[in-house]
Amino acid sequence: MTDLTARRARVLGPRMTTFYREPVEIVRGEGVWLWDAGGRAYLDAYNNVPHVGHGHPRVVEAVADQLATLNTHSRYLHEGIVAYGERLTGRLGEGLDVLTMVCTGSEANDIALRMGWAATGKTGLIGTDATYHGNTHLVSQFSSGRTPIGGRVDWVRRVPAPDSLRPLGGSAEAQAEAFAAGVARAIDELEAAGHGFAALILDPFFANEGFPDLPPGFMAPTQAVVRAAGGLVIADEVQPGFGRTGGHFWGHERIGLVPDIVTMGKPMGNGYPVAGVVTRGEIVEAFRRDFGYFNTFAGTPVAAAAASAVLNVIEAEGLQANAAEVGTHLLAGLRALDHPRIADVRGAGLFVGVEFTEPGGLEPAPEFTAEAVERMRERGVLMHRIGRGGNILKIRPPMVFSRENAELLVATLGEVLEGMD
Amino acid sequence: MTDLTARRARVLGPRMTTFYREPVEIVRGEGVWLWDAGGRAYLDAYNNVPHVGHGHPRVVEAVADQLATLNTHSRYLHEGIVAYGERLTGRLGEGLDVLTMVCTGSEANDIALRMGWAATGKTGLIGTDATYHGNTHLVSQFSSGRTPIGGRVDWVRRVPAPDSLRPLGGSAEAQAEAFAAGVARAIDELEAAGHGFAALILDPFFANEGFPDLPPGFMAPTQAVVRAAGGLVIADEVQPGFGRTGGHFWGHERIGLVPDIVTMGKPMGNGYPVAGVVTRGEIVEAFRRDFGYFNTFAGTPVAAAAASAVLNVIEAEGLQANAAEVGTHLLAGLRALDHPRIADVRGAGLFVGVEFTEPGGLEPAPEFTAEAVERMRERGVLMHRIGRGGNILKIRPPMVFSRENAELLVATLGEVLEGMD
């Protein structure tokens, strides 16, 4: 154990996890590259928070300038938050025109769920059974891992998540109806239990679920079920939003979902803590009528400057198009790899992965996947794993990832897999 | 309505409140001064987030440098968060030696309460009946205003808050025992209801309650009651922490409280979204054993740089001593004001206020107080009001407030009060 590791364990306390068997001490970042304390470079194929690249000078400059000028809260008038709100809502569908700024994706989902309560007068909530929406008390009820502290509440139900290799209903064609049927059952249960049904929350890319391949109309049957029951759909865009999937700016557009509430977080400020909730005016009206919501650090001039700079760079550098092009190249490269444990290669834009199973079957191979992640790190490429079985490589780099970066990743993974059974 | 006000109402939605009858459009800040779009200067006697002063160059530089160098999450090793944790916990009492960084005071309290659950195995929580601890679903259960969305839970009980002019138990001497008796009753109720008792959360300055004058041993009886019941005390230092009260670095030291968990927020990063929870290792162990807590934007190299810079400036500029000295001068000036509605002048360091009542009695005068706040703003001094009755001036400026600033505030308030009945 290094001195830093020991000091960290002491002051940050027990069970403060790190990535990798031998944790990496990162000291500098630029674009898609990170450097450790020994000067070694790593290709960052994991981090989506530095959406437009580590240390992007336009974002740094925007934050530094605004910090030196003014950083106060949103109870004073300021052009910055208003202009950002107009620009951001302009990128969303009709009716999604009111922005509430918060600081983290967890805070965004925490209030989006309560907006659902306030707008419907009901308390029942639904998520998938292989997801994660954040870390507050309310939102952690959706985590698929350990039972939340304080126990699970009766008014949150979890429905079977879609899957690429093991589709609900037994086939890719049946999956959309089968997912909707799961939601319908959960709604019936919530109504029978007296909670009523307020909202369904989901990541439209189903990232934590393993980002299954889904057809564009996948959500139509579910959306009809939710609407018929008088509930709302919350699209958690923390992972797929801001052009990540290449073909669309938002994940919900990709699968033909029309959400009532959209939440966003991680990539929004390139690392400055900014998150937000966009919905219709009448939902905000219901929420604020019942609760005098205010968030000190949210929607400040600096938060707005950081978020605006991110949109500027996405546009100026054509990063959504880059995600589409490089993502296609990356997928093609990964698909050309040959290994008996590769069961599937899928994803969209710059969010792709390789699913590993026991050879010839569907049994997830989490240890194999974990070992591959470690060996990639040893060879200087940072990624992680995801999915219900922990058996899918999570490749989700900054959006400035290039074709050359993709080729280096694929070549390195090829070498790693060659040495593994 | 100005164009900006109209645009703001449209894109930030209904019931997005502003301060003051005529909202102020602030465009620049420096030290204790804010300037509006027309170039008018305002003395900021309200904002505690810019703890070491608006736009402090050392904080701006620290954030800008670190943003340009590296800003990634805490699952990689980094010296910044470790060094900050060591420094911060070094300022807290024995055993309070493990830091969990988060982004907002709400997030800090949301996990502190769940730490209480995890450490005790019970769910009952207690706060005062005139408080505010934040805006997540869990934490909003403590808000004394409207019923939280989704209704009030049975496992949160609210006890009568101490008061300067209307002391619990009928006298200042009886108040400490009377407050403890309220807590004891709430514990009995929680146990009778089957929830058991996990934690008492309070701001040791009782800021929202109206910061009553309390003797140094005030918390001793309550602490004994909590300990005897096997519960924990959470000190919410979001308002009094970081030297604000002048005589002590933490509010809990001032009233002789020995907390099990300390939460902090607003002033910690001078406006960069940083907050934290400090407690004992075994409480963190219980919490993380039950929940794989991770917070993407928290404890990043930039968050640590901002928070470290704030400690640097507090120390280099002697701001705690400044708060003590200027606060004493400010209190003396306020006490020299004469008006039939001034019922009390109190506070500590740079958190002071004037309580207004109907002449000669104890009936709060919230409209009078609101009018005084408006007239101060018209004369270029920004403050607000607080307390159960909304009848106490809230004077809580950046810690670089000078004797001259205090004299300007007192003189302006004198002029304002002269024109009011």
UniProtKB/TrEMBL annotation, chains A, B:
InterPro entries, per database record: Aminotrans_3, Aminotrans_3_PPA_site, PyrdxlP-dep_Trfase, PyrdxlP-dep_Trfase_major, PyrdxlP-dep_Trfase_small
Cofactor(s) needed: pyridoxal 5'-phosphate
GO molecular function terms listed in the Swiss-Prot or TrEMBL record: transaminase activity
Lineage of source species: Bacteria, Pseudomonadati, Pseudomonadota, Alphaproteobacteria, Rhodobacterales
Keywords, ordered alphabetically: Aminotransferase, Pyridoxal phosphate, Transferase
Protein's organism: Sinisalibacter lacisalsi
Family, per entry: Belongs to the class-III pyridoxal-phosphate-dependent aminotransferase family.
Protein name: Aspartate aminotransferase family protein
PANTHER family (alphabetical): ALANINE--GLYOXYLATE AMINOTRANSFERASE 2-LIKE, PTHR45688
Superkingdom of the organism of origin: Bacteria
SUPFAM superfamilies: PLP-dependent transferases
